[in-house]
Amino acid sequence: MSVKLVDGAWSLDNTFDFRGQKVRFGVLGEGAPLVLLHGTPFSSVVWRRIVPHLTRHHRVYYFDLLGYGQSDKRPGQDVSLAVQNQVFTALLDHWDLDLPHVVGHDFGGTTALRTHLLDGRDYRSLTLIDPVALSPHGSALVQTARRHEDALNELPGYIHEAILRAYIAGAVHRRLSEQEMNRYIEPWLGDQGQAAFYRQIAQMDDRHTDEIQNRYSDIRCPVTILWGEQDSWIPVARGQTLASRISGANFQIVSEASHLVPEDAPEAIVATVLDFVARVA
Asked: What is the DSSP-derived secondary structure letter of residue 190?
């Protein structure tokens, strides 16, 4: 099984059936298991420059969250954080992983936290990268989509694409190339993609972080937190507050990086994760 770029496109070769819905995933490398979870509005493509380095030491698993990337997108679908931890739990069973190292960015970090605290799944280590872990959360676009999902679905495609480009550009410190930007916006284009984009935003709800944010002292594994110094989506101060709630958590600020640290500073993630998991092992 493998995950690779084919003619510049991101390829996930494997499919898992979650309640009749397809979740696309890939596995690469050998060694102690390590799972990567992406955030919103992204996909597993965020890991494309990170995976090759991690697979030298680990068997790496990653996937597109339900309703994201190459996984199924359907009308009326529940793609909220309330279901993503159920997807992750089912995947851990499918992969037969009992105690993996886990790395989660943004909603991926939240999903990892919910799976650990609500579903009782244990990790050997947990690396969080700018996670959505404290309420309240949600940008101005999120607030608008919650109120006007149907109207946004009816926007002309070129206006929707302009919104996508501006939204994703706001998550990075550097300027994305056209090819890089296209990797992020492609899953959200067309009638199906546009509806899926506003669907996942409209389903964002503080109750999903409310359920866990007072339980961070119960985390049962070593934790490292990375935070982009220029993150305008979730300020560094929020990351420092999160770290203060997790006993023994290591907190590191990544310079010249915004919210999408895997894009701005993949080398910082590789170095931190490899060092952290080696010390925990």
From this structure: H
For 197-244, give the DSSP string: HHHHHHT--THHHHTTTT-GGG--S-EEEEEETT-SSS-HHHHHHHHH
How far apart are the C-alpha atoms of 224 and 246, rounded to whole Å?
Answer: 10
Q: CB within 8 A of 10, min separation 6: which ones?
A: 3, 43, 44, 45, 48, 69, 70, 183
Confidence bin at 7 (pLDDT 50/70/90)? very low
| CB contact at 8 A, 274 and 247 | no
Each residue's pLDDT tens digit, 114-163: 999 999 999 999 999 999 999 987 777 777 877 888 889 899 999 999 99
Which distant-in-sequence residues (6+ apart) come within 8 Å of 33 by Cβ?
58, 59, 61, 95, 97, 100, 101
- For the chain, what is the radius of gyration of the CA atoms? 17
pLDDT tens digits for range 46-95: 999 999 999 999 999 999 999 999 999 999 999 999 999 999 999 999 99
DSSP string, 129-181: ES---SSS---HHHHHHHHHHHHHHTS-HHHHHHHHHHHHHTT-SSPPPHHHH
pLDDT at 137: 79
Q: Which tokens sit at 265?
A: 């500073």
Nearest CA among 224, 228, 131 for reference residue 171: 228
Burial status of residue 136 (CB atoms within 10 A of its CB: 0-12, 13-18, 19 or more)? exposed
